[in-house]
Write a structure and sequence with these properties.
The structure is a single chain. This protein has helices at 2-17, 19-44, 55-71, 79-86, 89-92, 99-129, 138-163, 172-186, 198-204, 214-221, 226-260, and strands at residues 49-50, 53-54. The chain is mostly helical. It has one domain. It has a two-stranded antiparallel sheet with strand order 1-2. Helix 7 (138-163) packs parallel to helix 11.
């Protein structure tokens, strides 16, 4: 645990080194958030509610989804791909901790900084610019905190898994980018999944992607009752377990392949 926390602390320090990049990313996220809010207002027109979401909820959704971009690395995370391609993985595998926990510790530090610096700041700007929806009970806030943690764990376990494609493909970057693009549509990032036909929603929930975006947002907006909230959190936990197990199996196969090829 001491090594894990030390790596997390180093990752936090590394993130604060690039303050200008963080501020540029924050400004970009907020700008596109304003554009998306304007699109929502235009789509609603005179309608008071669409699929159980008011315009206020829909605008809040745009802020929350923009706030999650950096926290969940929605647009790409290729650290393991680069590690494999450069040969650095040889040294990483010799670290006094599992390969999964080694990268998890670093991603935790990165995610915490982006949650605070970009995520919370974007929502603060939204609160000044719009009349946003805010959770109104302690239980809802606690469920949201747990959902955010589980969303990050789901995201990391999935990103770890697809990055392992570098063991088999010299074009793993393209493979990963394809799956990142797919996740934007199936996670509820572009539009709340409630807006889509029921068959498409069922298709989305056959993937881990809604657990990263749609589930925390629905809990934040108060669209799930107590039983539905427990079911949603349980689904997140189940996907984490499945992805971690699958990731470990793929990693073992990849390491054997790496050794067979001589390094």
């Amino acid at each position: 645990m001491h090594t894990f926390l030390a790596l997390t602390r180093l990752a936090i320090q590394r993130q604060f080194t690039y303050r200008a990049a963080a501020m540029a990313g924050l400004a970009t996220n907020f700008f596109f958030g304003l554009l998306r809010a304007a699109v929502m207002a235009a789509l609603y027109g005179n309608q008071v509610q669409v699929s159980g979401l008011t315009l206020q909820d829909a605008i809040t959704f745009t802020g929350l989804s923009q706030a999650g971009i950096a926290f969940l690395s929605l647009f790409g995370w290729l650290e393991i791909v680069h590690s494999v391609n450069s040969g650095q993985i040889g040294a990483d595998l010799l670290k006094p901790m599992s390969y999964f926990r080694f990268w998890m510790a670093q991603d935790l530090g990165r995610s915490l900084v982006n949650l605070l610096v970009r995520g919370l700041t974007i929502m603060a700007f939204y609160a000044l610019a719009f009349d946003i929806t805010v959770p109104d009970s302690t239980g809802q806030w606690l469920a949201l905190a747990l959902a955010i943690l589980l969303a990050w764990l789901t995201s990391f376990a999935w990103r770890f898994l697809i990055n392992l494609s570098a063991f088999w493909s010299p074009n793993a970057v393209g493979f990963c980018r394809l799956f990142y693009a797919l996740s934007w549509f199936l996670s509820g990032f572009f539009m709340p999944l409630r807006f889509f036909p029921e068959w498409f929603q069922r298709l989305c929930y056959l993937t881990p992607f809604p657990q990263m975006i749609n589930t925390p947002i629905e809990i934040y907006l108060g669209k799930l009752n107590s039983l539905q909230t427990v079911q949603a959190l349980s689904a997140q936990a189940a996907w984490i377990i499945a992805l971690v197990i699958l990731g470990q199996l793929v990693l073992m196969a990849g390491v054997r392949r790496l050794v067979i090829q001589g390094g």
